[in-house]
Amino acid sequence: MLFIQFPLWCRGILGFYVVASHPTALNSWITGPAARFIEKLSEEEVQSIFMKVLRKFVGSLHEISEPINFVRSTWYSNPFTRGSYSFRSVESEKHDVWSSQIAAPIIKDNCPVSFIFYILFKYY
């Protein structure tokens, strides 16, 4: 089998996951500096490499067609998130901090500031 050379940023790909509410869709996470780096690449280049990685690992088990659509976030360069990430740690429960408390808006100068992240939903 021909060895496929992958760019170094591929080491940041955490995995591919079936989206429960859309069984024909896949979600993938990319972590660390690679997540920032791929925002500089074209959609076509990122999609092409992701498909090569997916086929490398499961292509012998499944026929993998080209995607109908490919969407990626601009998590790092988005001026509203700038790469931030939120999660409830095991310490949250210990300190009696709950999603509902974080979901409550902060009022400053009569102007509410709200946070919208999946951490705010109690089932995550």
Layout of strands and helices, then pairs:
Blueprint: E1 13-19, E2 22-30, H1 32-37, H2 43-58, H3 90-94, H4 99-103, E3 106-108, E4 111-113
Antiparallel strand pairs: 1-2, 3-4
Helix content: 25-40%
Helix-and-strand structural type? alpha+beta
Q: So how many helices?
A: 4
The strands making up the biggest β-sheet line up spatially as: 1-2
Query: How many strands?
Result: 4
Q: How far from one another are the termini?
A: 41 Å
Largest sheet: 2 strands, antiparallel
Overall 3D form? elongated
Total number of distinct structural domains: 2
How big a fraction of the residues is strand?
Answer: 15-25%
- The sequence of SSEs as H and E is EEHHHHEE
* Average predicted local confidence, pLDDT: 80
Low-confidence stretches: none
The Cα radius of gyration reads: 19 Å
Describe the structure.
This protein is of the alpha+beta class and 124 residues long. It folds into two domains: 1-84, no CATH class; 90-120, no CATH class. The protein is 26% helix and 18% strand. It is built from four helices and four strands; from the N terminus they run ββααααββ. It has a two-stranded antiparallel sheet with strand order 1-2. The longest helix is centred in the middle third of the chain and has 16 residues, at 43-58. The termini are far apart. The relative contact order is 0.11.
